[in-house]
Amino acid sequence: MGEAPRLTHLRADGSAYMVDVSAKDVTARSATARGRVDLSGEAVAALRDGTVPKGDALGVARIAGIQAAKRTPDLVPLCHPVAIHGVEVDLEVDDGGVEITATVRTADRTGIEMEALTCVSVAGLALVDMIKAVDRFAVIGGIRVVAKSGGRSGDWVRPE
Amino acid sequence: MGEAPRLTHLRADGSAYMVDVSAKDVTARSATARGRVDLSGEAVAALRDGTVPKGDALGVARIAGIQAAKRTPDLVPLCHPVAIHGVEVDLEVDDGGVEITATVRTADRTGIEMEALTCVSVAGLALVDMIKAVDRFAVIGGIRVVAKSGGRSGDWVRPE
Amino acid sequence: MGEAPRLTHLRADGSAYMVDVSAKDVTARSATARGRVDLSGEAVAALRDGTVPKGDALGVARIAGIQAAKRTPDLVPLCHPVAIHGVEVDLEVDDGGVEITATVRTADRTGIEMEALTCVSVAGLALVDMIKAVDRFAVIGGIRVVAKSGGRSGDWVRPE
Amino acid sequence: MGEAPRLTHLRADGSAYMVDVSAKDVTARSATARGRVDLSGEAVAALRDGTVPKGDALGVARIAGIQAAKRTPDLVPLCHPVAIHGVEVDLEVDDGGVEITATVRTADRTGIEMEALTCVSVAGLALVDMIKAVDRFAVIGGIRVVAKSGGRSGDWVRPE
Amino acid sequence: MGEAPRLTHLRADGSAYMVDVSAKDVTARSATARGRVDLSGEAVAALRDGTVPKGDALGVARIAGIQAAKRTPDLVPLCHPVAIHGVEVDLEVDDGGVEITATVRTADRTGIEMEALTCVSVAGLALVDMIKAVDRFAVIGGIRVVAKSGGRSGDWVRPE
Amino acid sequence: MGEAPRLTHLRADGSAYMVDVSAKDVTARSATARGRVDLSGEAVAALRDGTVPKGDALGVARIAGIQAAKRTPDLVPLCHPVAIHGVEVDLEVDDGGVEITATVRTADRTGIEMEALTCVSVAGLALVDMIKAVDRFAVIGGIRVVAKSGGRSGDWVRPE
């Protein structure tokens, strides 16, 4: 992450480009991201009681996240297309909202942190859409990579 | 936001559905959302110096956000398709990261808070993708609606 | 549906084109389509017991159908883009499989039978995907428009 | 297809997820699906005479099917993205309608039955769209996998 | 097209944005674009004889163009979503290649020149894809708006 | 490119299909395409001065091109999906307009000329969209493959 590799990656005119990953190895890789949606007590109660007006909010958010993971290269302009091998999304309701954790797996030339982050973000957006008639103050936050494995940099767990 | 309208909206079996908005008026509507990406000092310096390895990070994030606003109904399962009339995205670099503000406008039967939130979220994801070789600890957060106008509920500004 | 209007619609060389609907009125329209997935007794039992290996099959099928309704003009080449106002999908498990009914609403210049049919078809496809580890003999069938309202031809119910 | 593998695949809370296929072998795989569109005699005549008002109905249906096969993971929520190697779609007009057969090929870790089924379904939808001004009673049915090869379960032909 | 309106449209920092069209009138609008694909004599002969290896090249190009017109706002980042009312694509084979003409219609707040240009461009790309096994020297060119009607600027025909 | 291979590729009824590439080798491949947008002197000046009303025209065109390269199989009906490894887009402003050059890389079973051509075409379309308020006479042209490497046919440079 020093000065040299960055300068070699930067194009002469500073313009955006999609980095060539042809020379990278195909290895099994996974990434886990987390985030949360802060909600009112009324919204948490509606989630727990299954009385969210638009229907099964957690189920919809989970599917939205999985589908968004597949669409990451369409959303993030310089992201490489990656063939995703598996996705799991956990949505845990607590007293202050919903904690979202997503793990994405592949065997490819480039990491899939962006897929995991996109999965969490869009699951959060879908949850806000489902609950917004009950709570217009919902906040999505803390979206970050918490662990990754595989690739040149090997296993990594975010110190928290 | 009382009990009665919610119960009438909920289907008998609690299953998800897209609410019928045919009876709502077409009015000029806008929504503004905010969020931010927390970054290391090194990453902030790279943004300010224009030395981000993958190129023009702020420009790419802005375009990603505008395009994502248009794709909101594709990402958020129960969102109605809305013909967007205008989008503006501001990315302000400060010492701790980048503050993102997006305003989306339309004249339609339903609000566009979700479009504004999706715009901010995906701009944030694209920014993290651009900068992740420099800062693997980036966190996206504080994504929320801060103001809206038009529609039955009229103008609203989030008290902060 | 006589000879004359068809001949005026046909291009001289018989090539495909998207019919101009500018002159049609904007009216409230709805369409209801039905279809079913024939399944084995084992698969029906798994749906009823909630033991489908890949998870909540009916919930996933419902969301897939709603999202596909929105993507109809992307899938059906000569279909006009229509702003959908509401979608409801019912999945009823019986001893021989699952009956799927979808109602789609809009206020536009052209009907939305194709959106209702696409919704039912893709809900059926998603259901087959969820259950295929249990039943590789699933058959999707009987996909048809059963009722429509609005537009020049007015209300119509399929005689069955 | 016994109880044990299903239980190990099912998540503790029964929620939907995309199964991890990393451990599966990359092998050449193909799947063939069939289905048909039942049509009136008038519609069959229009297809045979090339007088369908919107143009070349069979050609449009074929292209729609091929493109839909590529978009399967976008439509079917828990489907893995698969790099398709080839697609063939046959549309055979008979006195009662059109028989649709699609064969899809790949070399990947997971089967492509869903791609073949999606191809047939969307070819059927596009055909209905082309012909609906002539026949509003069209029915799409009999959509099923008729053969597959490759993968752990090897070659398989549906007994009919 | 003077200096004043441009300066008011330009944001202070020169960053890209989607112009707000809320104040523009909804009027019937159409745009016609043209372009051509230059081909070898062998390729022209294959088109005329119907012996292009991958199949019906002109039919595929026409469908590709119509579908691309619908996807314009997804491809052109700052383009407004517009509900297209009709599309016609003409492909005329001459001794030097294929002349492509597309007319797109709508009734909306903003013009659809970009939809017509996108239709011609992608029809050209699809044609090159169909014929590239026969002619690897194909060139797509002359893509331009030749006429438009409706909107504030009224009818306009390109002087040629 | 003789008669024999073409005849074996053609289906009996001449209908379109996606050629099976399963038997082709996975090799590193690249393709470079070029094209240009002819512009008025006023438009060239606006690009050079950074006073294009809608913002950073060259940056937006570059991103549009990169994203379109990834979406090629969605736009070009019979194109195989290919996992792109890298994309670079150069936009060079000269006195008559903008010269666009794109290089796309992969390691797959089939070439990526179509991805490079699509990248150039859509970059051109996005540029026209950005500048059309200044110059309604813009023409996109000269879109062609100029070099490719890898695959059965090996390295190739277009003689010009």
From TrEMBL, chains A, B, C, D, E, F:
The keyword Translocase does not apply. Its EC number is 4.6.1.17. InterPro entries: MoaC, MoaC_bact/euk, MoaC_sf, MoCo_biosynth_MoaA/MoaC, Mopterin_CF_biosynth-C_dom. Residues 18-151 form the Molybdopterin cofactor biosynthesis C (MoaC) domain. It holds the Pfam family MoaC. Keywords: Lyase, Molybdenum cofactor biosynthesis. It comes from the Bacteria. Substrate binds at L78, C79, H80, M114, E115. The active site is at D129. One of its GO terms (biological process) is Mo-molybdopterin cofactor biosynthetic process. Gene3D superfamilies: Molybdopterin cofactor biosynthesis C (MoaC) domain (3.30.70.640). Pathway: Cofactor biosynthesis; molybdopterin biosynthesis. It catalyses: (8S)-3',8-cyclo-7,8-dihydroguanosine 5'-triphosphate = cyclic pyranopterin phosphate + diphosphate. GO terms for molecular function: cyclic pyranopterin monophosphate synthase activity. Catalyzes the conversion of (8S)-3',8-cyclo-7,8-dihydroguanosine 5'-triphosphate to cyclic pyranopterin monophosphate (cPMP). Homohexamer; trimer of dimers. Belongs to the MoaC family. This is Cyclic pyranopterin monophosphate synthase. It comes from Serinicoccus hydrothermalis. The gene is moaC.
